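All the exercises in this workshop are built on plain-text protein records. Sequence and backbone structure share a record, each on its own labelled line. The question running through the whole workshop is how a given chain folds. The record below serves as our worked example for the rest of this section.
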Amino acid sequence: MVKPLLGKFALVLSLLGLSTLTFAAEAKEWTVLVYLNGHNSLDAFGQQNIDSMAKVGSTDKINIVVQWASEINGKTRRILVTKGGYDLIEEMPAADMGDYKTLVEFARWASAKYPAKKYMVDVWNHGNGWHTQSTGGSFHMNDISYDDLSGHHITTEELGVSMGEIAKLTGQKIELYASDACLMAMGEVAGEMANSVKYFGGSQETEPGQGWPYEMFLARLAANPSMNGGDLGKALSEEYKKAYSGGIYGNQEVTFSAWDLSKMDRFYAAVGMLVKELQSLDATQLKAALAAINQSQSFALADYKDLGDYLVNLKSSNLRIGDHALGEVTASMKDMLISVDVTAVYSRAQGISVWLPSSKDELAAYGERYSHLNFNKQTGWGSFLNLVVQ
């Protein structure tokens, strides 16, 4: 009955010489934006993850919207995931998913068409933390969202810019940003978006190809759509570990953590205070601080270390560092971390990775770029690295 009435109303407006009214969609509690870049070796997992999302689907309270780029079909599709499937909303030629502007444009389109009180942004793809890794020959793994068709990727800095632009166009901070990608739970990554994102989630280690258990954490959101980004980040972190601890993806060693970025300033201040203490060490003590780097929990990239484990190793090295400085970093981490979920191999991991190179070559390769990252600007971490790596 509604459509014919609207049609007659539009006809009356037309006869009166008035423009047809535009009826905006009512804002739901959540819109989950999944930027699914299948222009690479992960393409086959895209359909699997969408099928997992569809076991829950969009509801009267949540939208699940995906920009799905696939090498297999050569198209980029914008879809609304529904219970048991999806509605194809738009189909385009292959988009450059390694261009951060493509991510921003997707969010602009989705937030206009599917407005919400809270937004989650999920970047789905390969990830490499904040820097580049050479894998031999001319191939490099770069930051996040590698597009093998264009040869482009989204840098950590660009990821921060894109979150800032999305926050502006939605008129609010992004409620939750999380990477369905490897190695992204880093202070350096979070630092680039701390001013535009409320809550942050990611893995310190590589992720298995299946990625997130979408059905499990989206079911928790559907059951409680009033949850905030911290609640959703915690649900994602918990369900991710469960999925690989005898759950739907079997048994594999994984890590995941969720952070409250409103606590980032305290964390910066605490790390900055520790840096000042470390800078006062003599040459012998600095060698011990370097040894502590080598003893700390590392991940697929050896220069990505767990910060909490490094603090433990610094304390056991009996360096001339005040207990207050070490304790304040530990306390600030506990204050910021909402959930840390790790399997047995990573029992020493405490949820936050930072750059801790132990060789001059690593420092030389990335030091200049590192100096411009917000985490370094706020803490002076790079100045400590320049002293300790000899």
About this structure: Residues 1-23 have pLDDT under 50 and may be disordered. Residues 264-279 form the longest helix (16 residues). Residues 265-388 form one domain.
